[in-house]
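Before going further, learn to read the protein records used in this course. The integers have meaning only within a learned vocabulary of local backbone shapes. The record below shows the convention in full.
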Amino acid sequence: MAPKTTKTTKSTKTTRTTKTTTRAPHVQVAPKPTKPVFRTGTLIAVVGFIAIIAAAIYMNRQAETEAAATEVPTEEAAFLFAEDSVVTGIEVQPAEGEAVGIQRNEEKAWVLSKPEEAEADQAASEAAASQISALGIVTEIEGNKDPSIFGLDAPVYTITVSFEDGKTNVLKVGDSTPSESGYYVSVDDEKVYVVSMSGIDALASLTFAPPYLNTPTPSPTATSTPLPTETPAPTTEVTPTP
């Protein structure tokens, strides 16, 4: 008999090797340095620019505050006489020279009363009357002041104004103000004002340009013609007869 063959079966065991990954301990990594958005010089420039703007705004506000503190509130225009006053007569007496006067007659027409009675230019006379209502007050002098300070002790002009209601006011015109803003004017020797120059000058112009309708022409001066002198006849000697 043939010998038996014994099969040897190799049992192969597969051994799985499990790899264990050992992690290294966590190490904190420092962040990479980043570049600043603005450089130091740029930042300083921006801060300086903002400071300049802030200073300018502050100075402007300060200037506005000071201006508001020193600003004088504007008052409404004031006049010596009421706007609805109806003037019926004006007389201007200069310190030297003749007075000039105009007045309304019974027909409400203007006529000259001084330096002589004559017909008046209606437009020029009405313009003078309008100046009376337009005499603006620049300022009022408060307190009792010496008239000589303002030249009112020896006024340059004395203006007498008559109104339809029968009232009469006397204006005395003194010196002009140092700033040439007007004249010192007293009303009935009571109150003193600074009155605008234009109105006073317009009234004063009546003294050297009276509003005649027809400018009077001076009458020619009569000159006497001297009588002819008689020439004496020559004397003749008579010889006596012996």
Helices lie at 40-70, 122-133, 197-204. The radius of gyration is 56 Å.
